[in-house]
Design goal:
Elements (H helix, E strand, L loop, with lengths): L3 E2 L18 E10 L2 E9 L5 E8 L7 E2 L15 E10 L2 E10 L2 E9 L6 E6 L6 E5 L8 E6 L4 E6 L2 H5 L5 H7 L5 E3 L9 E4 L4 E3 L2 E9 L5 E8 L7 E4 L10 H4 L7 E9 L2 E8 L3 E8 H8 L1
Antiparallel strand pairs: 1-21, 2-3, 3-4, 4-5, 6-7, 7-8, 8-9, 10-11, 11-12, 12-13, 14-16, 15-16, 16-17, 17-18, 19-20, 20-21
Bound molecules: beta-D-mannopyranose.
Beta-D-mannopyranose binds next to strand 6.
Amino acid sequence: MNLNRFSGNPILMPKSENAWESKLVFNPGSYLSGNKIHILYRAVDKNNISHIGYASSIDGFKIDERLEKPVIISEYEWENLGIEDVRVNTIDENIYITYTAYSTNGPRVAIAETNDFKSYKKRGLIGPDHYDKDAVFFPKRINGQIILLHRIEPNIQLAYFDNLDDIFNPPKEYWKENMANIDKFTLLKPKQNWEIAKIGAGPPPIETDQGWILLYHGVDQFKVYRVGAVLLDLDEPQKILARSKHPLLQPEEWYEHWGYVPDVVFPTGTALIDETLFIYYGAADTTCCVATININNLLKELK
Ligand code: BMA
C-alpha cells in the first residue's frame, strides 16, 4: 500500500523575503471547511524559532493563498522557544489548534481556538507537566467523552475528558493519576523495525464506517521517519482492529531525503474529499508536501 505523491511537491517552500519563514516550512496541519482546505504550517526563522504560517487550497494541491505574516507566534514564557507542529482539531463542533509549545522546560502540549483562521485565542498548556508532544483530538465525542491522543515517548497514549473545561482546567490530580497509570492509557507501542524507536500520532483520526483511521509517524533506529496507520474501533477506540505492517510512506523523493533533517516524512493534516484522502506532511523538516490515497483502498489494505 502506497500513497500517491503529488507530482508538484513540495507545495510550500521557505520564503527568503519573509524573515519568519526564511529557513524552513514543514509539518502542516490542515482543516477542510466548505470547499477550502486551511493549512497551518510550521515556519522557522534564522534563529531557529518556530512560528505558524497560514496558506489555503481549494483543489488540495495548488496553494491559492499564503499570508505574508505569521498567524501564531510565541508570546509567553511557556512557549518562548517557539510554536511547533500544529494539528487542527474539532471539539464539540469548534476548531481547536493543538501545538507543541517549546520552552526551556522542553516540549509541552498547548491549545488555541479559532473560528475563522484569522484570529486565534491561546488557551495555554494542556497535558501533563512532562516532555510531551503530538497531541490531537478525536473529531467527535465517543460515549460522551472527549478523547485526546498524545505522546510520552516512545508510545501513544489516550486521555479522556467529560467536559470541555476539564481540558483547560483538569481536576486537581487528573494528570498525576494519568501518569501514574500510564500503561492503562497506552494505545499503541512501537512494533515493527521501521517504528522501533518511537511513534507519535499524526492528524486527527478519520471516521469511517469500519473504524477510526489513525495515521502516525514511526521512527527507526537511524532516525528515519515513516508513516504508519491503525484502524481503531468506532465505539472503543482503545481497541486496535488493524495495523499497517509496512509504512504507507517512507522517504524516497529528493525533498524527503534532502533537507534540514534528512529522511523525514511527518504527517500532520488530512482532508477527505469524496473518496480521496489528502495527506499533508512535512518533508525533511524543510518543506510541505501532499500525497493522496483512495480511502476505501486504504481501509481494504489495512484489514
Ligand atoms: C520531532 C519534531 C518534528 C520533526 C521531527 C523530525 O521531534 O521536532 O517537528 O519533524 O522531530 O525531525
